[in-house]
Automatic annotation (TrEMBL):
Name of the protein this chain belongs to: Putative glucose-6-phosphate 1-epimerase
Active site: H155, E256
EC number assigned by the record: 5.1.3.15
Record keyword Isomerase present: yes
Family, similarity comment: Belongs to the glucose-6-phosphate 1-epimerase family.
GO terms, molecular function: carbohydrate binding; glucose-6-phosphate 1-epimerase activity
Catalytic activity line of the entry: alpha-D-glucose 6-phosphate = beta-D-glucose 6-phosphate
UniProt GO cellular component terms: cytoplasm
One Gene Ontology term from the biological process aspect of the record: carbohydrate metabolic process
Pfam families in alphabetical order: Aldose_epim
Keyword match Electron transport: no
Amino acid sequence: MSDAVQHLDFNGLPAIRITAPNGAQATILQHGAQVVSWIPAGGEERLFLSERARFEPGVPVRGGIPICFPQFGSRGPLPKHGFVRTVSWDIESARAGSDFATATLVLNDDDVSRAIWPHAFRAELTVLISGQRMDVELGVSNPGDEPLRFTCALHSYLATREVEEARVEGLRGLRYLDAVRGTEHKESGTELMIEAETDRIYFEAAKPIMLAEPRRALGISGENLPDVVVWNPWEHLSATLPDMTPLGFRRMLCIEHGAIGRPVELAPGAEWWGRQSLVVL
């Protein structure tokens, strides 16, 4: 196996690391097909991974990019954020080209999944890195004879140097649900500052978003994932999470694209995909 594709043990769990010719690299666990590291070419780590994250079968990993499917959050009868983030996926392919590297992991329904969600499905998670950019794409196909209906999100924990100095731009005018207060609003500000527990779902966010910090910025955009979640647990909620350090909330901000407000509906034999792109600016 070339240096571009490495199979490794990551804190006790099997993982794959892909490296582009320009040095950009990403590490993906088979556990949940979860991206746990992204280092752009010549840059620094841009994903947050909690120092207290648990790396155990059946347990969510706090950080990186967990996949929420087939349910976002608690918006339905399934376990919170669904079940695919805590099961092992298969590596289907991995390779590097002249200026990129990519890997695809797959998950099919089985007896365990059908006991939770009685549907046939095939999910694919494809990661592509090139220079200063990473694309993460979730694909879902319906091989069964009944319609599929699901919500989903790419739950991206973005690394911040100091979250209180970060600002999120590109949300003005959007309708959002403030899940902390249980109320709906329209975003009136040109930038969102994180100064307390924040848990918002912005609906129909068609334009790119920017996470701006002193001396660096990250562009975030989505395709076929119309909604955007902005989440930070802040001090008090963070203290109740056993897999977060007391000050971990200061080093992260979740900005994730998803299909949440309107569930995706897949007819038998149909396919769907949604993509989130991160670009160092």
